[in-house]
User: What shape does this take?
Amino acid sequence: MREKTSGELSPLVATILNNLSGLYYARSEYEQVLPLLKRSLAIREKTLGKYHPQVSTSLNNLAEFYRIQGKYKKTLPLYKHSLTIDEKVYGKNHPDIAIGLKNLAFLYSEQGKYKQALPLYERALSILQNIFDEQHSDMQLIKRNYEVCLSKAGL
Assistant: This one.
């Protein structure tokens, strides 16, 4: 219905596709997820431009889907591109930057690249410490991941 009322290339259609991919993922219908994520990204890039926060969100969601599947070579450039967009849009010290850094650090940690992950976790914590208190859920998650990474790195 949204495609008929707003057009196939509407950003609203992209949001619906993105949300629908999450529903399919939650239902373990993984074969449905990838085409929806890719279509959502394509619509957002075409209608909003390559450096828009919603494009970053689509890149991040696609990266996360690949990461969960263990397709790290596909994941890394998507996370990096998402982070580049967020830094261009928000600057270097926005909470979204911290989340992007956390995602990238977690990817490196999963691959056993702890020394690459640690500075990313540290930067994410530094950003969030200026915004949230120590009890904030994002702070807690990143601290926990950082401590695990330190331990695995033998530091």
